[in-house]
Amino acid sequence: VKNEYFPNPFYPVTSETYGAYAIMCFSVLIFVVGTIGNISIMCVVCHNYYMRSISNALLANLAVWDLALLVFGLPLVVFHELTKTWVLGHFTCKVIPYIEVASMGVTTFTLCALCIDRFRAATNVQMYYEMIENCTSTAAKLAVIWIGALLLALPELLIRQLVTEEGGEAEGGTSDERCLVRISTSLPDTLYVLGLTYEGARLWWCFGCYFCLPTLFTIGSSLATAQRIRRAERGCARGNKKQVRLESQMNCTVVALATVYGACVVPENVCNMVAAYMAAGVAPSTMALLHLLSQLLLFARAAVTPVLLLCLCRPFGRAFLDCCGSCRGAARSSAAASDDNEHECTTELELSPFSTIRREMSNYTATGSHC
Length: 371
Description:
two-stranded antiparallel sheet, 11 helices, globular, 2 strands, G-protein coupled receptor, 71% helix, Rhopdopsin 7-helix transmembrane proteins, glycoprotein
């Protein structure tokens, strides 16, 4: 008989208790770092006028999704791992895998869009930095990313079923709710056939679309962009070496984001391959551990991404420090000349297309920089 209460994973103390503490501590670290980091990225982009470029809009869009993934997905996954029970039952079993696959889609398409934007900047620098991207164009690009990712992940809702396995006497008769890739026979014929087709192609679809596409696209685009940057530097196309450094820095940042994403997605693909070809020879506990690792790494990627941006991208880091100083109410003690130099680094042309506007407004105080 199923227990009417959730088992306590931390008592009594056994070998599994230490694993529960480790999962809890790691999850809390991911949640805290990811929440603070992603909110910081959104704060910097939304409240700093000079940071509202298309590249930064893409990064802020990614931060919004990563924050939602951490807030709504991580607690439910950890709760299931500790109690072996899905909150809200079948609904959560279907929605959590859907959100995880959709997050990979959002990240994949955002990386591709960033690569295209950086290549466009390196190809026609003067026009790019003096061009103002209107809100309609930016919103359309973000809508394509979100709608595409959400639609491509929809088949995940068809292939998941919640299965309850009763434990033996050694386990105290507790039940274990598992979310398995299994198509319900109660589905309409059309959806049932769609689910079967997707289940058969899921392994290579996820591997090709969510791993190979962003990896190969980022490598090819970054190499082409780096070549354009070197050519522009030799030809003194910018006339300002800071722009060259910052553009090269942004290109390296995109490569770092793609590298972290690829490393965190590898366990997910390994888990899919093992489940498809070697499930009979692998213990269920090993499969469960591999699946948990792949899930935690997806959440870790959402937490590491804003940290990379703040550490590797100098304008983001400086804008974040300015934002923190404004939030604390600290008065600026530097002279007007040093303020201009600081804003030059923060609002340099690499991350914002408002170069001409900045020159026209150089006599005014930058607004919208407070949290």
